[in-house]
Amino acid sequence: MNQTKKIYVSIFLRNIVSLFLSIIFFFGTSIKYSYAFTHEWVGVPKSEYGEQLWDRNSIKINEDGSIRVLSKFIPNIKTEITQDILYTMDINCFEKSFRDVDVYIDKINSHPNNFAKWKDPKGDKLILGVIGQVCSFD
Predict the structure, then answer these.
(1) Contacts of 53 (CB under 8 A, 6+ apart)
(2) pLDDT exceeding 90 applies to what percent of the chain?
(3) What is the pLDDT of residues 80-107, one digit of tens each?
(4) C-alpha to C-alpha distance for 116 and 113, rounded to whole angstroms
(5) How far apart are CA 12 and CA 6, in angstroms?
(6) Which backbone phi and psi does 118 adopt, to 5 degrees?
(7) Domain boundaries defined on the chain
(8) Cα–Cα distance between 47 and 75 in angstroms, integer?
């Protein structure tokens, strides 16, 4: 009887420890995950068409050396068609070129394009502002 009681206590303690570690892991992961979704928007000089922002917390270096960043365009005139548009951009700092690898209004309506071609900004002040600031960001 005493041996059976020791086995039950051992199983009980093992389960309590497992539960405790699972709770710590869950909350630790949740906190870390929530920080990944905080944005620190940085604006570039406005143009006649609107405002362009980029997220300082989203900067990532790609394998090819280009920089990936989340950007947001806010048009001067908003309608159902012209809303804030989010872009995931890759930026080539050496060539001052970019490609939009994802364009969306919200995460549900995301349209990833992993085969996007590199583009020249063709004098677009907003895109040139993002490229300039992101490429000089430390």
Answers:
(1) 41, 42, 43, 44, 71, 72, 74
(2) 54
(3) 666 788 999 999 999 999 999 998 876 6
(4) 6
(5) 10
(6) -70, 140
(7) 1-37, 41-135
(8) 10
Beta strands (DSSP E) in the chain are 41-43, 50-55, 60-61, 67-75, 85-92, 97-104, 111-112
* Whether the Cβ atoms of residue 87 and residue 74 lie closer than 8 Å to each other: no
Burial zone of 131 (CB within 10 Å; 0-12 exposed, 13-18 middle, 19+ buried) = buried
- Tokens 């969306």, located at residue: 104
3-state secondary structure of 21: helix
Predicted model pTM: 0.69
> Do 121 and 131 contact (CB within 8 A), yes or no?
yes
Cβ partners under 8 Å of residue 111, min gap 6: 102, 103, 104
Distance CA 9, CA 34 (A): 37
